[in-house]
Task: inverse folding
């Protein structure tokens, strides 16, 4: 206990001393830690952050459904479904391979450039489409890992009880699969939240662009600190919520096991 | 504090030298003696000027065509285009030959971020503001600028004759520029303006019909409508606000003593008509545009 306390104090003390002794520390502190600018820019940056929140809420809701769909397609057995599987694999490979920022840039600038009547020109719309395409690819892999982690005997048992393949998937395999992948799902969820900042390349004044605008006006990096605070404030409750979800699930299963 | 003292000392010295120069009537000699003598300048690379701008560098500020990789659109080494011409004129005043100037590519946002600067000065149409001046040092003005609005011919916004008439439209500008600030602070449109990483992306959005108009500085507006947007039109220029004229200055690392020497050079170039001549040469096509009030 004492050793831990002393070690912690010494460790952070030395770290702080090293950082503050750097030749550019005064300039660094002046650039990032301007508290009056922090307070002053908070409302503006927070307002811009609402755009990020909206984008990721809409995108996440769609992704959870589409990714499950892609994962199921990819798990379809038998030679008949080969083209479907191949398509799902090609899709996942492509969108996991291309940097998200490029997808956003290509769709956000490219699609409206087609000039076709009826194709939306809204930057936010195309940003959401891009994020959905990219993250569906990631999340479908997470789902697939979950589906494959359910032992085949479960499916066999369900089928022998007279459930159809679809019923077995819906009532036996997926409930177990999804439960197991909640932590990695949250991981991608947080990744998505952060990637909403990439929408800035399309000119939408969301949290990153708003921070950069204030940075360019004041030549100070403090707004980035504001933006980072907002992101952290959003992700920490989410992490705790997932912990709670997992704990509740474990309790329920234990109760079920006892009841049996 | 120390820099303050040195600054005062240098200013005094500069003043004394300037007076001496006026007395002898030989300004070019003065530029080569004392603290502003070529061999006494504290430079990033000894013996030569290391200057920086963004890549691509666009006309009419830069010129010479795409003749020196990796520079796109223009070639800062050419001495063509207004900013390049001013840079070489100042370099000459400081006693540097054309071959003793090296150009580096530095994006605007990197020009003011903390850390040792890898350039002696930076010029890319950076406007002076008091807030910015607290983080870097600006030279005196080498250009006084007005913002202008570019739209596409035949669109409703192109018929606007006042700032108030622009409010219903979707506007955009380059991220972090005074052009963007002008939209937010003075036009105050009803829908949120967009801020693009580059002017090119803003132009793309204008062509796509994603925005109705873009705000850029007036000389750039002439280039945009002449070259980049086929059906582009300058709707009008905006009056300066807040009682001060918006001006472009070179950006220096804070406390860089070179700035005083550059300011002296600029003062001479304004006084002897060189600046005016360079503006006539490179910004001649920047004609008038109706003023939106």
Result:
């Amino acid at each position: 206990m004492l050793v831990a306390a002393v070690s912690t104090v010494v460790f952070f003390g030395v770290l702080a001393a090293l950082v503050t002794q750097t030749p550019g520390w005064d300039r660094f502190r002046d650039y990032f830690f301007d508290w009056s600018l922090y307070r002053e820019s908070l409302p503006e940056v927070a307002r811009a952050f609402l755009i990020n929140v909206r984008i990721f809420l809409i995108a996440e809701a769609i992704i959870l459904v589409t990714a499950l769909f892609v994962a199921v397609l990819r798990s379809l057995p038998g030679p008949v479904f080969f083209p479907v599987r191949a398509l799902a694999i090609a899709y996942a490979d492509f969108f996991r391979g291309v940097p998200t920022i490029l997808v956003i840039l290509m769709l956000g600038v490219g699609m409206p450039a087609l000039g076709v009547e009826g194709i939306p020109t809204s930057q936010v719309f195309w940003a959401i489409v891009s994020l959905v395409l990219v993250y569906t690819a990631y999340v479908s892999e997470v789902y697939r890992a979950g589906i494959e982690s359910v032992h085949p005997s479960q499916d066999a048992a369900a089928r022998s009880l007279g459930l159809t393949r679809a019923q077995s998937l819906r009532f036996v395999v997926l409930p177990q699969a999804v439960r197991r992948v909640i932590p990695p799902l949250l991981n991608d969820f947080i990744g998505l939240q952060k990637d909403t900042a990439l929408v800035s390349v399309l000119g939408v004044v969301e949290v990153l662009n708003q921070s950069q605008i204030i940075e360019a006006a004041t030549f100070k990096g403090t707004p980035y600190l504001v933006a980072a605070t907002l992101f952290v404030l959003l992700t920490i409750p989410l992490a705790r919520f997932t912990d709670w979800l997992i704990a509740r699930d474990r309790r329920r299963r234990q109760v079920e096991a006892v009841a049996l | 504090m120390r820099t303050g003292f040195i600054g005062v000392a240098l200013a005094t010295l500069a003043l004394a030298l300037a007076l001496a120069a006026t007395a002898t009537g030989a300004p070019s000699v003065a530029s080569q003696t004392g603290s502003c003598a070529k061999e006494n300048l504290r430079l990033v690379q000894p013996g030569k000027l290391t200057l920086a701008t963004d890549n691509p560098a666009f006309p009419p500020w830069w010129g010479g065509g795409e003749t020196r990789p990796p520079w796109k659109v223009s070639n800062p080494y050419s001495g063509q285009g207004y900013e390049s011409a001013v840079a070489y004129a100042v370099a000459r005043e400081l006693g540097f030959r054309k071959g003793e100037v090296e150009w580096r590519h530095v994006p605007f946002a990197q020009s003011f971020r903390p850390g040792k600067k890898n350039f002696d000065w930076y010029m890319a149409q950076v406007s002076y503001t008091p807030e910015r001046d607290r983080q870097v040092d600006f030279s005196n003005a080498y250009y006084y600028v007005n913002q202008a609005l570019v739209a596409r011919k035949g669109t409703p916004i192109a018929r606007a004759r006042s700032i108030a008439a622009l409010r219903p439209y979707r506007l955009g500008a380059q991220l972090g520029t005074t052009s963007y600030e002008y939209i937010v602070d003075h036009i105050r449109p009803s829908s949120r303006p967009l801020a693009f990483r580059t002017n090119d992306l803003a132009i793309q959005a204008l062509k796509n019909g994603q925005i109705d108009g873009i705000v850029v500085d007036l000389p750039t507006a002439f280039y945009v409508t002449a070259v980049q947007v086929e059906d582009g039109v300058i709707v009008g220029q905006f009056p300066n606000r807040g009682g001060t004229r918006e001006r472009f200055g070179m950006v220096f690392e804070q406390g860089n003593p070179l700035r005083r020497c550059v300011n002296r050079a600029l003062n001479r170039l304004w006084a002897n008509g060189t600046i005016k001549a360079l503006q006539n040469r490179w910004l001649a096509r920047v004609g008038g545009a109706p003023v939106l009030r």
